[in-house]
Write a structure and sequence with these properties.
This protein has 678 residues and is an alpha/beta fold. It is 55% helix and 8% strand. The chain is built from 24 helices and 12 strands. Helix 3 packs antiparallel against helix 4. The longest helix is centred in the N-terminal third of the chain and has 30 residues. It starts with 15 loop residues before the first strand and ends with a helix. The N terminus is likely disordered.
Length: 678
């Protein structure tokens, strides 16, 4: 989306009609302006814009980014090989050319988003945004967003520079691809250098695709989305086309363009844009479709219909980079501003944002992109580097100030700070909380909590997902008061269950294995004798078998009942309500309706799990419901503090209000254990 297409003359062969598209074959293979590629840019950026703004007809619009990767690979590899064939390629000049094309417009967007965030964003969020912006200016934002991609990561709609991950991936491609091609070129005979380059690019593409498909199936964290290793095959698809064209030219073969291929590519690309492709594990096998579509358009080397050659389409293609840069910050910041003030982000607002994105993109193209590209007498390489370096250094200093102050908190009213504290997403003992791949920072199988650190003599285990881990602090305080040591067996998005091949086939393999290992550990060891179970269960059907297995193994079970399913971000909505009111809201309660309190699930647990074990002292129900709810209402905010940190998890600030419940439950469990041993 950031690629130069130098104007040039194109000769045309007679056109033919294919599938309703008028295709004009491009004569020759010399480098020149490709109107079809510019039109593909236009379709891609409009697809991304429509997808992000949730406009009907763009259900798969995110594939526009994948099409951009193909275009990038094609044009940049063509430029590198052309330079090498003419013995005039310079890596420094290549990097400077890309910097001149990309950096000025990117810097303007980063500064604008940071300035807007000053007035709209809470301190901890603002610090994250500034840190991510700093990564963006060094083309490392894909790593920053990958690190902020866990279960409790901020929602995508709160990250105004999230879309810059693709720029980082492309820039990293700009670094290694020319170096790799030049290395192959230097080690090959001149007569077969292009063929050797083609072979190496193809081999790397195959390895990258294989890695992508493997990671797609084995990485529950979705890290492949931001990874150059898993994405490299996408720009390499374009690179292979460029190298193939160069090889054919060098061997005196005719151009390989095809109107049929181009038409098929346009149809496939349009289908992918409109069809709701499965985005949850992307990139993967489905990604081959849009990459194939874009590759067919590029390889078709054809000038397309009058519609796609129209001035509107070609101008949007010209502006595509700047439109892409501006559309996401506009959506995030303007949308957030509207929601905070109670306005509906409906079709009218979205239409305004589409117009604003295109208009701002056009202005950026003419006022920022073109002057830096064309006024080389003013923006010499030295001046460009000094200016970019100075601007980046200033931003790094601003980032350091944000680190020292934790996001410049003095910008906003003090009554918003309690909501800010509630939103802090650090889960208790985060080093012991396994991610979705069952990996944790702390060493050993299980961390300890409570009175001691000797895992071999622990008498309690906390087992579950984040809905178990949220109670770690009150459980630890209660255990310490009773001189008990506990083990932490918690994993992100992995409720506890006794693994069943039929019932749990849809669960991730790391989750299933974690539960198998944890249950085996409990069965094979007499201690811990007390197991605290909590999880985000949707049905009692998988609670009963697990409880029965533990009870039959001689364990005493403390079953934590479900709390609330709120359905909206409590701190953020509390912030929005206070902004609209213009003052602090110390108390906020809502009706205790059946959906909020999960009445049906609670009753099912009582009927199928607790009922059959009534009178069994080794099954203890711990119900946190009464700490936040009475018969008719539930407190989301009480005494100026939020009870929840998101849509369902309790806040760390008020977690200790549940400590008496855990102390009572653990005391009862100790009595049950002692009675069983007599």
């Amino acid at each position: 989306m950031r690629l130069i297409s130098a104007p040039g003359c194109v000769s045309f062969r007679p056109f033919l009609i294919v599938s309703g598209l008028e295709i004009r074959m491009q004569g020759g293979t010399r480098s020149g302006f490709r109107g079809d590629i510019n039109a593909l840019r236009a379709l891609s950026v409009i697809a991304v814009l429509g997808y992000h703004l949730k406009i009907p007809g763009f259900a798969g619009g995110f594939v526009g980014v994948d099409a951009f990767f193909v275009i990038t690979g094609y044009l940049m590899t063509q430029k590198v090989i052309t330079g090498l064939m003419a013995d005039r390629f310079s890596f420094g000049d290549f990097v400077m050319m890309r910097l001149r094309r990309i950096y000025p417009a990117l810097l303007v967007v980063v500064v604008a988003a940071t300035a807007a965030g000053w007035f709209l964003t809470l301190p901890s969020e603002y610090f994250r945004h500034i840190r991510q912006a700093c990564y963006t200016l060094f083309f490392l934002s894909n790593f920053a967003f990958d690190n902020d991609n866990g279960y409790f990561a901020m929602a995508a709609q709160t990250k105004p520079l999230l879309h810059t991950w693709s720029l980082a991936v492309e820039w990293q491609f700009y670094i290694w691809m020319p170096l790799a091609v030049r290395f192959v070129w230097s080690k090959s005979a001149r007569s077969n250098a292009v063929a050797a380059t083609l072979a190496v690019l193809g081999a790397v593409a195959v390895v990258s695709l294989a890695w992508c498909l493997w990671q797609n199936q084995h990485d529950a964290m979705g890290a492949a989305f931001f990874s150059l290793r898993a994405r490299a095959w996408e720009p390499l698809a374009g690179a292979i086309i460029a190298a193939t064209e160069m090889w054919r030219r060098e061997n005196g073969r005719a151009a390989s363009g095809s109107g049929l291929a181009a038409a098929a590519g346009w149809i496939l690309t349009a289908f992918c844009v409109a069809y709701p492709l499965p985005e949850t594990r992307w990139p993967g096998a489905w990604t081959i479709l849009p990459i194939s579509g874009a590759a067919l358009v590029v390889a078709g080397n054809a000038q397309t219909s009058r519609l796609l050659q129209s001035a509107v389409v070609q101008r949007i293609g010209d502006w595509s980079y700047s439109i892409y840069l501006w559309h996401w910050p506009i959506w995030v910041l303007a949308g957030g501003w509207l929601i905070a003030r109670g306005y509906d982000v409906g079709s009218t607002a979205k239409g305004v944002m589409v117009v604003a994105s295109i208009a701002t993109g056009a202005a950026s193209y003419y006022l920022v992109e073109q002057p830096f590209r064309l006024r080389r007498d003013v923006w010499t390489p030295r001046r460009l580097l000094i200016s970019a370096g100075a601007a980046t250094a200033a931003f790094v200093a601003f980032t350091a100030g944000s680190l020292i102050t934790t996001g410049y908190p003095g910008r906003l009213p003090t009554y918003l700070l309690p909501a800010e504290m509630a939103r802090k997403t650090d889960t208790p003992r985060d080093e012991c909380f396994r991610n979705a791949n069952s990996v944790k920072s702390a060493s050993g199988n299980y961390c300890t909590f409570g009175a001691g650190t000797d895992a071999e003599h622990a008498s309690v285990m906390l087992w579950g997902d984040s809905f178990a881990n949220q109670y770690l602090e009150p459980a630890s305080t209660a255990a310490a008061a009773l001189h008990l040591t506990g083990l932490i067996a918690t994993q992100s998005a992995c409720r506890p269950f006794a693994d069943d091949p039929d019932r749990n086939s849809a669960d991730s393999q790391p989750c299933r294995q974690f539960n198998v290992d944890t249950l085996r550990y409990l069965i094979e060891h007499p201690e811990p004798s007390i197991v605290i179970l909590a999880g985000n269960w949707s049905s009692a059907a998988e609670i009963g078998p697990l409880v029965d297995t533990l009870l039959s193994s001689g364990k005493t079970v403390v079953l934590v009942m479900p709390l609330l399913n709120i359905g909206f971000d409590v701190p953020q909505t509390w912030i929005d309500n206070q902004i609209r009111a213009g003052h602090a809201i110390e108390e906020w309660k809502v009706p205790a309706d059946p959906a909020l309190t999960m009445r049906d699930l609670r009753q099912e647990i009582g009927r199928t799990v607790l009922g059959p074990n009534q009178g069994n002292p080794r099954l203890i129900a711990l119900d946190p419901h009464h700490e936040v709810c009475d018969d008719s209402t539930c407190y989301l905010v009480r005494s100026g503090q939020a009870n929840f940190r998101d849509t369902a998890h309790i806040s760390n600030i008020n977690a200790q209000q549940y400590e008496p419940l855990f102390e009572t439950a653990l005391s009862s469990a100790l009595h049950a254990v002692a009675h069983a041993e007599r």
